[in-house]
Amino acid sequence: MTAQTPSTPPFRDPQLPFAKRVDDLLTRLTLDEKVAFLHQCVPAVERLGVAAFRTGQEALHGVAWMGPATVFPQAVGLGATWNDDLVRRVGEAVSQEVRAMRARDDRVGLNVWSPTVNLLRHPLWGRNEEGYSEDPKLTSAIATAYTRGLRGDHPTYWRTAPVLKHWLAHNNETDRDTTSSSVRPRVLHEYDLRAFREAVEAGAVAGVMPAYNLVNGRPNHVSPYLREHLRTWTDQELLVCSDAGAPSNLVDSEHYFDTHEEATAAALRAGVDSFTDHGTDASTITARIQGALVQGLLSEEDIDRAVRRQLAVRFRLGEFDPRLDPHAGTGDFDTPAHRALAQEAAEQTVVLLKNDGLLPLAGDVRVAAVGLLADECKLDWYSGTLIHRSTPLEGLYERFGAGRVDFAEGVDRVRLKTEAGTYLRVPVVDAGQEVRGAEGALDPALLRGRTDLPPLTADAEGTDLALIDWGEGLLTLRAPDGRYLSVADDGYVRASADQPGGWVVQETFRLEAHGSGHLLKHVGTGGYVSVAADGVKVAEENPSGAEVFELEVTERGEEAVARVAAGADVVLVFAGNDPHLNGRETEDRTTLRLPAHQERLLRAARAANPRTALVLVSAYPYAVDPSDLPAVLWTAHGGQAVGTALARVLSGDVSPAGRLPQTWYADDADLPDLLDYDVIGARQTYLYFEGTPLFPFGHGLSYASFAYDDLATHVRDGRLTVSFTVTNTSARAADEVAQLYTRAVAPSVPRPRRELVAYRRVHLAPGASVELTFEVPLRAFEFWDVAHGRARIEPGSYELLAAASSEDIRLRTTIELDGEAAGPRPVGERGLNAADFDEQRNTAIVDRTKVSGDAVIPVDGGTSELVFRACDFGGKGVTGVSAQVAGEGVVELSLGEGEPSAVLTLGTPTGPYDYTTLDAAFTAAGVHDVHVRLRGPLRLAHVGFSG
């Protein structure tokens, strides 16, 4: 270690604690320099030798947006592995690649924005692929494993600094920056906060990113929960990074504040430490902060607090100790170990949903591989660029031999005929020089956005195009050589994309009936396709000048599928989604159904050959009818090795052991409204759903069989120990995922039907047994007691369920917990916080003030009702009631469901945050249920009692 000279500033002294070094550096920065630190792109401070810094590097399942990288399965697929150790190793590999890429490109940041821990509450969420599970225990455990891998295991210096996304209660994309998630206290504490809390408490999280949406009427970027909850879970300084553009949304789309200075100050005071806004241009944000300082909305202490948190992360990353940082100049990239890990992860992602003996496939079988996903290796918005690629078809060729595998994609082949009698033609391009790499494969880098390729024209012969229907009327069109039709900035239509993709997808079209033909609308621009002398282009949005096409179908996809299916021993129909289309970031799905075209392909294959299996490759669940299918599998888009992994599972080289991380529902009718975030009241997820799922949470079959025995429990020192034995009763080595659930037998409030408290994935040789022991903290049995405003364990009986899924219970026993008895609500002392209801009808929770607190309001200004159970007014009772209200309307109180005992009217309208107190006579003694009815656009914050 180099000795420190007297001139060496303390922040450069590695022998001092990080906190002292941060404090020293903070004192040396000018106010202007500190303000500059608050934008995502932090400039260098050359006079102090402090380098530039940037928060934010996407790394959800590999290094994203920075070029070639190892691409692992999507996050929902990693959740399906139920394997903490595997996910930790994936995180470790990703962080090594971040370091390696950083060494050669300083655009690569070490503050990684990953993982996403939003719970998969609703399967129509467009970003379902980004989360791990609908269950908070599984989500937090997988997230903890991934962040530990990203962080590294050095006690002092972190390999990367993970930030959890997206705080909080964020499960809808459509209008995501203006919708509010109404989250009652029980759901907040028992569900949404848990996924974040357990990962933060594990100690490998550097911070969080607030979500675009509002929670209880207040934007997440000014959430009091950052202070009230997040920062109480750890002594470590946590860095809160805004989502892109969200600070501006506070004024521009949400209209929550009148000025950007006010909004920026509010976000900073609430706990946002780094502002991701206006791209790399920091001037707008810094001007807003300077303006807030001048107006007295911020103090230098507010600035210091945020800068200190950022510096704490930078010191942990070793930036100021390059000689001591064990990760400096290190990192592996696209190694054999990473390629093997990508394949292992893809194999463990596969879930066998149904199998009537069709699988595994025999080695001499003749296979027909059909469907839109059969020869695809799809990426998503947060993928890196593939270095290696394995489609299902390629995996089957590799495993069974190309001579034993027949293929039919199943797309419709069409020609588009113009009113003049000509057809759209794709010009031939020199494949050796223009759009293909050295090995002849389509090179994405040579395609997207090119304007030097010739646009489409029209002639007498034309070109047969593959018309790919992704559902909802959304189409892509592909040339015979594999290039997708796309529209560049100049408006011309070219075959210039290897895949649909991009923030605005320029490769999608819709056919609109028009007279006896169709208009072809380009979705990315909203314009219609026309044919001009200089080529095919997108015209104005007015369809009057657009070309009317006659659609000539030269071959139906079902015909090709039926033809190859009839001659095969087994048919594998590969169906699913393209992650850039329909359900995706900014766009939720509208249905669980497979696109109609894919359903037709499945029916055609099944009609031609009853030995047909459905293989779903998708970012989310589907509602499919498996009754006449002998086998069904699912995998998330599995990254670079999805094809090899599926082939190894289908052939039996690997026994499937993935388990569903979320419920698969049988029908859209089973789903609540996408914006209903009350998982308790709406009976959402496996925790509360009372219907029959298509496939339950935790479900997944194996080629082996397992027996469960010897369930034993022991409670001591605040922990529950549970053990049981799992035995492989088959002649095949395989993994099993043992799951442990609990259930309150006779709860006083609605509790989960069953709830995951522990799990373990184990590998067992034929005939082998293993005793599994789980240490379960008694906190796992708590619920949030709204009557007393705290978590507690209710005394009584609890079932423990050893299971192979949430519906496949193998062993059960009952334990008694003393818990903590709680009496009725002490309303004489505390009154009633309006949001602490037990039950509600037609009510939304909103912000009491712009800073903190909750109130309630009838949905759409109508009539709502709140129920507060077992309210104790004491032996002497009360004689008066008061209500804190804003807006306009009527509050009615009654004991039980009878006529109102008190009516309080706010006749003079007020602003939404201008509360007034209304008083009335109200007589009650003893314990009663209280019903509160609200009529009109009235905000109720609190009800108090006197006398």
Task: Characterise this structure.
- This protein is an alpha+beta fold.
- The protein has 5 domains: 35-316, Glycoside hydrolase, family 3, N-terminal domain (TIM Barrel); 344-410 and 557-658, Glycoside hydrolase family 3 C-terminal domain (Rossmann fold), CATH 3.40.50; 419-548, Trefoil (Acidic Fibroblast Growth Factor, subunit A) (Trefoil), CATH 2.80.10.50; 704-817, Immunoglobulin-like (Sandwich); 827-946, Galactose-binding domain-like (Jelly Rolls), CATH 2.60.120.
- It is built from 18 helices and 47 strands.
- The strands form 14 sheets. A 6-stranded mixed β-sheet has the order 1-2-3-4-6-9.
- Strand 11 (367-370), helix 13 (392-400) and strand 12 form a beta-alpha-beta unit.
- Residues 435-442 have low confidence and may be disordered.
Q: Secondary-structure map with pairings?
A:
Layout: H1 18-28, H2 31-36, E1 41-42, E2 53-58, H3 75-81, H4 84-104, E3 111-116, H5 136-151, E4 161-167, E5 180-181, H6 185-201, E6 207-210, E7 214-215, E8 218-219, H7 225-228, E9 239-240, H8 246-252, H9 260-270, H10 283-294, H11 300-316, H12 336-349, E10 351-355, E11 367-370, H13 392-400, E12 405-408, E13 412-417, E14 423-425, E15 457-459, E16 465-469, E17 475-478, E18 484-487, E19 493-497, E20 509-514, E21 517-522, E22 529-532, E23 535-538, E24 550-555, H14 557-566, E25 570-576, H15 596-608, E26 612-617, E27 631-635, H16 642-651, H17 685-688, E28 706-716, E29 719-728, E30 734-744, E31 755-764, E32 769-777, E33 783-785, E34 790-792, E35 796-805, E36 808-817, H18 827-830, E37 832-833, E38 839-841, E39 843-847, E40 854-858, E41 863-872, E42 878-887, E43 889-895, E44 902-906, E45 916-924, E46 927-935, E47 938-946
Helix pairs in contact: 1-11, 3-12, 4-5, 4-12, 5-6, 8-9, 9-10, 12-16, 13-16, 14-15
